[in-house]
């Protein structure tokens, strides 16, 4: 593991490393959403990725970057779902044990998927402190290597490959790319890919009002916690890390917040008009573009749809 901020070279190397294991996801367009937004939108469909989310990229890059010694006692992480699946999937590929700490209120669809990849799940209360404490206990007991869901440079480098593909696959120069932000792994990776592969492209983030820590951190210049946490976007509940925040602060143009109602409306458009299954967190960037027409009007905008792991028994519409 390099332990340094991703560079153009390390992102290219990560892409070559994970390519055999991931889907090169398609970029979709929608005339309806173009007209609604007044912009030319290009949707990078990471909901169609292995494990149903972009997290496969970061998990694979982190696990494939470990030495045989580091893999010997397995890997461990904490996650409400998508990173958990990514780690379980990646560990299975290299034949390593995988221990996952999941909040006890994680979506059943995500729990079942993690179990399906053969990982050992330990449940905990849904607080960052409880998650980390449980991970530390597993590390002490098993000697497993801890891979943080987002505050890890190998994970960030892997996530950067989604925007790299988007930039390479779209025949136009994008004026902007927007990604959702939770812990900031995808957003920081996206911002670095734009910097290296499309320097004229501005990067924005969409964030739920009910987990608005990144926008506070962005304004105050230090990592903040959200004043309250209550959102349908269960994949974006965490706050930024000391590795993701400086990249975001340096490379991201703005963070735009959206309400749960706006997230559900965007989700409905993606399901009904584009015929794709998108989870609430995955619809946040679309919601932010539709809400902020003045920012994006007349521009060519890449939108990263981060995931499609939705509990069909709990659809919000």
UniProtKB/TrEMBL annotation:
Its EC number is 4.3.1.19. SUPFAM superfamilies: Tryptophan synthase beta subunit-like PLP-dependent enzymes. It is an enzyme of class 4 (lyase). Keywords: Lyase, Pyridoxal phosphate. Residues 19-307 form the Tryptophan synthase beta chain-like PALP domain. It comes from Dyadobacter fermentans. GO terms for molecular function: threonine deaminase activity. This is Threonine dehydratase.
């Amino acid at each position: 593991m390099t332990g340094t901020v991703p560079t153009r070279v390390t992102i290219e190397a990560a892409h070559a490393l994970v390519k055999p294991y991931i889907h090169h996801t398609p970029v979709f367009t929608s005339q309806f959403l173009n007209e609604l937004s007044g912009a030319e939108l290009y949707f990078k469909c990471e909901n169609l990725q292995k494990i149903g989310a972009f997290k496969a990229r970061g998990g694979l890059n982190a696990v494939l970057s470990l030495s045989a010694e580091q893999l010997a006692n397995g890997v461990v992480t904490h996650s409400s779902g998508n990173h958990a699946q990514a780690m379980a999937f990646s560990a299975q590929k290299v034949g390593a044990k995988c221990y996952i700490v999941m909040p006890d209120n994680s979506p059943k669809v995500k729990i079942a998927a993690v179990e399906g990849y053969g990982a050992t799940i330990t449940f905990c209360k849904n607080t960052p402190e409880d998650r980390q404490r449980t991970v530390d206990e597993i590390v002490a007991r098993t000697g497993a290597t801890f891979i943080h869901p987002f505050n890890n440079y190998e994970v960030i480098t892997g996530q950067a490959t989604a925007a790299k593909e988007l930039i390479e696959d779209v025949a136009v120069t994008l004026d902007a790319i927007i990604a959702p932000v939770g812990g900031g792994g995808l957003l920081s990776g996206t911002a670095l890919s734009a910097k290296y592969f499309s320097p004229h492209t501005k990067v924005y983030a969409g964030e739920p009002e009910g987990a608005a820590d990144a926008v506070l951190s962005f304004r105050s210049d230090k990592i903040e916690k959200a004043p309250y946490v209550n959102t349908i976007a269960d994949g974006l509940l965490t706050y930024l890390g000391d590795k993701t925040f400086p990249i975001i602060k340096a490379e991201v143009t703005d963070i735009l917040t959206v309400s749960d109602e706006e997230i559900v409306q965007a989700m409905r458009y993606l399901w009904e008009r584009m015929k794709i299954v998108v989870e609430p967190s995955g619809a946040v960037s679309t919601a932010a573009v539709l809400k902020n027409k003045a920012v994006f009007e007349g521009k060519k905008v890449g939108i990263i749809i981060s995931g499609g792991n939705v509990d069909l028994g709990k659809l919000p519409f």
